[in-house]
């Protein structure tokens, strides 16, 4: 797999692609952790867990939305 990535993108492209995949994984894990922290009824929490696990873009989008919401709250202070 790494050889194929290197053949397609070269040295710098493969390093950049690997870095972007790693950063997406980090943001995905942070989003899942943030979704798990909220207190919700158990039925809704199960829905959010399944969304976070089966749709990988959802936790990343949730994390970005939460950062924007926190930024707006800090601007009001």
Summarize the structure.
Helix content is 90%, strand content 0%.
Give me the secondary-structure topology:
Elements: H1 2-37, H2 42-54, H3 57-76
Helix pairs in contact: 1-2, 1-3
Question: What are the key terms here?
Answer:
77 residues, mainly alpha, flat
Structure characterization notes:
- With 77 residues, this protein is mainly α.
- The chain has a domain at 25-77.
- Helices cover 90% and strands 0% of the residues.
- It has three helices and no strands.
- The protein has helices spanning 2-37, 42-54, 57-76.
- Helix 1 (2-37) packs antiparallel against helix 2 (42-54) and helix 1 crosses helix 3.
- It is flat.
- The N and C termini lie far apart (49 Å).
- The model has no long low-confidence stretch (mean pLDDT 91).
Q: Could you give the count of β-strands?
A: 0
Q: How much strand content do the residues show?
A: under 5%
N→C terminal distance: 49 Å
How many H/I helices?
A: 3
Structural class: mainly alpha
The major sheet is characterized as: none
What is the overall shape? flat
H/E topology pattern: HHH
- Oligomeric state of the chains? single chain
Radius of gyration: 17 Å
What would the average pLDDT be, to the nearest integer? Answer: 91
Q: What percentage of residues falls in helices of 4 or more residues?
A: over 70%
List low-confidence stretches: none
